[in-house]
Amino acid sequence: MIVGAGQAGFQTAIALRGGGYQLPITLVGDEPHLPYQRPPLSKEFLLGKHTIEKSELRPLAFFETHNIALRIGERAIGIDRDTQTIHIESRPSIPYDKLVLATGSRVRKLPIEGALYLRTRDDAIAIKQRLDSAQSIAIIGGGFIGLEIAAAATTLGKRRHRDRSAAETDGSRGRARDLGFLSRLARLARRRPSLRSAACTRRGSHHRRHRRRAQ
Ligand SMILES: Cc1cc2nc3c(=O)[nH]c(=O)nc-3n(C[C@H](O)[C@H](O)[C@H](O)COP(=O)(O)OP(=O)(O)OC[C@H]3O[C@@H](n4cnc5c(N)ncnc54)[C@H](O)[C@@H]3O)c2cc1C
After folding, report:
1. Pick from 86, 98, 76, 101: which is nearest to 21 by CA?
2. Which atom of ligand 1 is nearest to the CA of 9?
3. Which of 34, 92, 121, 164 has the fewest CB within 10 Å, making it most exposed?
């Protein structure tokens, strides 16, 4: 029994089959889709080079031929280790012999009304729809995924917008200029302490150092 039908859960199932494991395998995932990979969501899919289906790791037939029971759209809500059972929301419980937890991670939500997040396939579809008609976008989170969205947006011809005050405050002047995306993070963080602690933890020390120098 594998809980979590993301890359890790999927890979575990096929590695077990590849290694000769012949007993039944059940893959439980709460997203209502075939297991898919996330990397194309912030790259080829946003750029319109791939359909969303292309992110699927294997077609349904693969799971059938490899005797991997797919329980997608089902959420595990509890584990009873005494009876070796997984409790599934609104469904009968499932017994297991061995259990793998591959439940991954989730986005950190911020108190910003109307913000979109990029983690799941459905998130990517929502962002792509909005991106198509957007003139400019604000991206909070300057890690790989945020930068990839920025790169996709500029490739799609979205307006370059230099936000000098924000770039200076968060210390990423060069990066903001090079990538040409609007970073409102620092300005938002100044106004919203909750945002500062939620979104700026990685940049916080640099941010404070920079402000001290500026004073
Ligand atoms: C947009 C984007 C782009 C990325 N690009 C890259 C890249 O270029 N290179 C790279 O190396 N990495 C990239 N990553 C990171 C990579 O996708 C993750 O490291 C990878 O998805 C982790 O896989 P996982 O299976 O551990 O977790 P997840 O992908 O989080 O999968 C876990 C699954 O378990 C499900 N689940 C959770 N709880 C339950 C439950 N109780 N019951 C049932 N199901 C449950 C979740 O809904 C999810 O479907 C990217 C991530 C994103 C979001």
Report:
1. 98
2. 25
3. 92
